[in-house]
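Quick note —
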Amino acid sequence: MTWIGVELGGITVTTVALDADGSVVSEIALRTPTTGGRLEVVDVLETGVRSVADEAGITLDDAGAVGVATPGMVVGGTIGGASNVPGWSERFSLSEFLQERIGRPIRLVNDVTAAAVAEHRFGAARGQMDALVVFAGTGVGGGLILNGAAYEGGHGGAGEFGHTVVVNHGATCPCGRRGCVEAYAGRRAMNDAVRVAEATGQSTTLFDLATANGHAEPAAEDWKRALEDGDDVVVQSLRDAVAAMGAGIASAVNLLDLDLVVLGGAMVDALGDWYRYRIESAMRPHLFLQPPTVRVAPGELGPNAGAIGAAVMAQDHADGLAEG
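Predicted structure written out below.
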């Protein structure tokens, strides 16, 4: 049996097909629509599923359930609160939309919860009973592994790390609230902050780099290059991001007494050890247990983690139904 997983990111829709051993047999990456509404995004999700099945040499009838990893809060097959995706802010039944189109059962899950499952099954959290997985890209998300399994909470909203408040009455987050981790460490909010700084007369090369690289908005690699060039505005924004990530992660570690934090996502992957070591250093003053026992590790599965985890969760869900 082949299992299909899709991750909806702020920039890319990643779709994979897994064999019974969890190996990726085909993968497709498509651009996430930045205009229009939810139907345009659903069109791309459907295209990804059909394309990856074709590349794997199977029909959709040959596939098991399809897993879909999406930003926002997932409740009973519905999604809402994902401000970084067009039409995803107001809740709707994504499972019904897709199931009608592709004729396969849909397992809908938060994107970083899916990534956490993938890292726990195949990656940096293998063998761990408890772990926090934090991904920083267009936004900032989190996923929890507790007692050896994904913890989604009573309403599917567990792990919304990006909306942990770290600064009372702080910067406005894309979600509309103030002081969230994502308001400082999500690339969309960081781009906006640099744009405001530029408007006040501060000099930055970030947007010129993005234009030169063919990006409508600065991407992670543009941030990396600007950092390497010593862009003062970018350096200050990254300092703010590090401080917010450090305080937020330390609070989660203090609450749950975790031994492992896995960091991933486009911003973390692009900035590498420079970013990870600074976040780990920023955590230390906030940690209750001294000396600290928590370990911070990079994710091992890269940009496919969410799609792989979605496929695994779809398979596990279908197996559970069959056993029941």
